[in-house]
Design a protein that fits this description.
The chain is α+β, with helices and mostly antiparallel strands. It has one domain: Beta Barrel (Thrombin, subunit H), CATH 2.40.10.220. Helix content is 21%, strand content 38%. The chain has 2 helices and 6 strands. Strands 1-2-3-6-5-4 form a 6-stranded antiparallel beta barrel.
């Protein structure tokens, strides 16, 4: 469970904007259920994560929160749970939300890095497979 935080520490136009303006790390396809709690309004949502990076993620959901909302985020993958304090960086009504991570406890950051390592290894292997040309057919000589 995440610790209680002072919402005012993360309010204002600068809260996480360094993550929202430009992507500086690669994103990877990633699917799993996500639980969201808006810290200020105590609104709870369930969504589907579709992309993840070291700095944030994209959630598919028909019901979005307001841009700049500070949230607690819980992502479940297999038997692992990632939790972070985050901010809604972008809203696409009826489609989803871009999320910027604000604070991640060290054990959860380690888990996130493990997931990204697995995803990047998988992506690199897939790219290698896609560029390898098939072996020419064998001929009887």
């Amino acid at each position: 469970m995440l610790k209680m935080v002072n919402v005012n520490d993360f309010q204002g136009p600068d809260a996480g904007t360094r993550f929202a303006q430009r992507r500086t790390v690669p994103r990877y396809p990633f699917v799993g259920p996500v639980e969201i709690l808006d810290i200020l309004t105590r609104t709870r949502l369930v969504a589907q994560i579709v992309e993840i990076s070291l700095r944030g993620c994209y959630l598919a959901t028909l019901n979005s929160l307001e841009s700049n909302s500070v949230i607690e985020l819980r992502i479940r993958q297999d038997h692992e749970i990632f939790e972070a304090l985050a901010r809604v960086a972008r809203v696409e009504e009826g489609k989803g939300m871009g999320i910027a991570f604000l604070k991640i406890e060290p054990p959860k950051e380690h888990l996130l890095r493990e997931w990204i390592t697995r995803l990047s290894s998988s992506k690199a292997a897939h790219a290698r497979d896609a560029t390898n040309e098939p072996n020419p057919p064998e001929t009887d000589s």
